[in-house]
Amino acid sequence: MNKLAIKERLQLFLMEDIGEGDLTSQTVIATGKRGQGNMVAKEAGVMAGGEIVRLGYQCVDEEVEVTIHVADGEPFQAGDILVSMKGSYLSLLAGERVLLNIFQRMCGIATMARDAVLRLDDPSIRICDTRKTTPGLRIFEKYAVRCGGGFNHRFGLSDAILLKENHLLAGGGITKTLQAVKEKVGHMVKVEVETTNEEEVLEAVEAGADVIMFDNATPEEIASYVKLVPSVIKTEASGNISLETIASYRGCGVDYLSLGCLTHSVKAKDISFLLEAEGE
Length: 280
Known about the structure:
2 domains, six-stranded parallel sheet, 12 strands, pyridine nucleotide biosynthesis, Quinolinate_PRibosylTrfase_N, EC 2.4.2.19, Nicotinate_pribotase-like_C
């Protein structure tokens, strides 16, 4: 992860919450009073974002000492202390809510990604995320997918070309659109084409797509489409794939399965932040 980009975002998020100061803590807690805070799991999950907590507290107060007890990508159980931090109570509480919100969401995404990989149980197929991320949180959410054993699709629109239904309609069909694209981009830019039936798959192959996506195809349809695609062209399936249905795609032969639910429908992990007095 790019630490500079992360800290820039965290500073904005913290500023939104802290504003002119933590009015509650400043009227209750004496300046200089110190202690420890712990982020404690209330349910099992997969770790993601310990370093985010550390970088976040650096934005709040560089004197806060953060200890990460569980490595990203590792499982944890209810009752485990995931991250602890020592410092001024005022600083610990100032960063608590924002950093815990992000941390809980990242752990939820990592847990869901791990669940998807385990349910699919097919090492020949990579589980990928999509661009269906929360605005402002993409860098965190896509990292969390990797912590869970998944892989990242495009980070943004500038990474690669993906010709979807609307592009193909505006461009005049698969062959015409793909030819126009190939004339304008360099050889390092990959071009993926979305298809919905056998005829479109064959057209995408003939037109020279680098990657072919099977949109909203059943496992049976995917297995038949894959046979039409040369091995030099990567294949991806996307649409209507959930944790409940993902096992049915085992052995279908596709290279990648893209799941928007990994980031747009995830449930944050239940994690508490609890203070303890210095010396306890």
